[in-house]
């Protein structure tokens, strides 16, 4: 299972325990651990293979790591002094290391939710959990900022708004920018209209032709089935609205 999905599962376990603040701290510990071991392994690899081509002059070559750019002091969970000493001696093999990705296709294959996002629906299990449409997107941005201080590339952060508009998007983009995120939005998801289809019968035609009730019911049923079938067909002229396949 991709780690992103594991984080989402852990999030909902802690939500049930009503400990959101604790999870914010735990989220930083998780990504601190990922970044620490990633850059340590990269330095060990550089000792054998050498640094990447443009290493000289990079922030890491000057001893500036990702949390330093965010003015964040790592916890005492790991020995950062040892890693910094390794880097000053060996450098690093990789210019970038951490980037939570949009695992849409892979997640569907394994039956997990996409990326590090909240659940898009509760079809997965019979638990009362807030879906991505019911969570404030500022909270989603804040969660991304918690991870951001240990992500040296970026995050595939999707924003979900029921009815997006210019004011909402501008406000959210500036909020993400103030939080220091490189990517304020990867995809914008909006909720499709879910109005019931309304069918009417022309009374004038009924008086003129006077069909039987059974004939009218049959015509209405056929029209309804045709409309529903048309809605289910994947539109090639608007492929971005269909997430069921990778076409």
UniProtKB/TrEMBL annotation:
<feature type="transmembrane region" description="Helical">
    <location>
        <begin position="12"/>
        <end position="30"/>
    </location>
</feature>
<protein>
    <recommendedName>
        <fullName>Ribonucleotide reductase large subunit domain-containing protein</fullName>
    </recommendedName>
</protein>
<dbReference type="InterPro" id="IPR039718">
    <property type="entry name" value="Rrm1"/>
</dbReference>
<dbReference type="Pfam" id="PF02867">
    <property type="entry name" value="Ribonuc_red_lgC"/>
</dbReference>
<comment type="similarity">
    <text>Belongs to the ribonucleoside diphosphate reductase large chain family.</text>
</comment>
<keyword id="KW-1133">Transmembrane helix</keyword>
<dbReference type="GO" id="GO:0009263">
    <property type="term" value="P:deoxyribonucleotide biosynthetic process"/>
</dbReference>
<feature type="domain" description="Ribonucleotide reductase large subunit">
    <location>
        <begin position="80"/>
        <end position="102"/>
    </location>
</feature>
<dbReference type="GO" id="GO:0005971">
    <property type="term" value="C:ribonucleoside-diphosphate reductase complex"/>
</dbReference>
<dbReference type="InterPro" id="IPR013346">
    <property type="entry name" value="NrdE_NrdA_C"/>
</dbReference>
<dbReference type="InterPro" id="IPR000788">
    <property type="entry name" value="RNR_lg_C"/>
</dbReference>
<keyword id="KW-0812">Transmembrane</keyword>
<keyword id="KW-0472">Membrane</keyword>
<dbReference type="GO" id="GO:0005524">
    <property type="term" value="F:ATP binding"/>
</dbReference>
<dbReference type="GO" id="GO:0004748">
    <property type="term" value="F:ribonucleoside-diphosphate reductase activity, thioredoxin disulfide as acceptor"/>
</dbReference>
<keyword id="KW-0215">Deoxyribonucleotide synthesis</keyword>
């Amino acid at each position: 299972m991709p780690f992103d999905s594991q984080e989402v599962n852990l999030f909902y376990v802690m939500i049930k325990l009503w400990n959101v603040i604790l999870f914010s701290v735990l989220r930083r510990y998780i990504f601190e651990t990922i970044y620490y071991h990633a850059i340590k392994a990269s330095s060990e690899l550089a000792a054998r293979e050498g640094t990447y081509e443009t290493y000289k002059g990079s922030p890491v070559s000057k001893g500036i790591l990702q949390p330093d750019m965010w003015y964040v002091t790592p916890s005492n969970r790991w020995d950062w002094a040892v890693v910094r000493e390794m880097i000053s001696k060996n450098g690093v093999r990789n210019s970038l290391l951490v980037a939570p990705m949009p695992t849409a296709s892979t997640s569907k294959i394994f039956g997990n939710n996409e990326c590090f996002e909240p659940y898009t629906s509760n079809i997965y299990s019979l638990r009362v959990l807030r879906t991505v449409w019911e969570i404030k997107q500022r909270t989603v941005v804040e969660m991304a900022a918690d991870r951001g201080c240990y992500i040296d590339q970026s995050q595939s952060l999707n924003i979900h708004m029921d009815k997006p508009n210019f004011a909402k998007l501008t406000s959210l983009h500036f909020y993400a920018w103030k939080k220091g995120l490189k990517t304020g939005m990867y995809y914008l998801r909006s909720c499709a209209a879910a109005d019931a289809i309304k069918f009417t019968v022309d009374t004038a035609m009924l008086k003129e032709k006077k069909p039987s009730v059974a004939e009218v019911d049959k015509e209405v049923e056929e029209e309804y089935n045709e409309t529903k079938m048309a809605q289910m067909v994947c539109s090639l002229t608007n492929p971005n609205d269909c997430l069921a396949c990778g076409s």
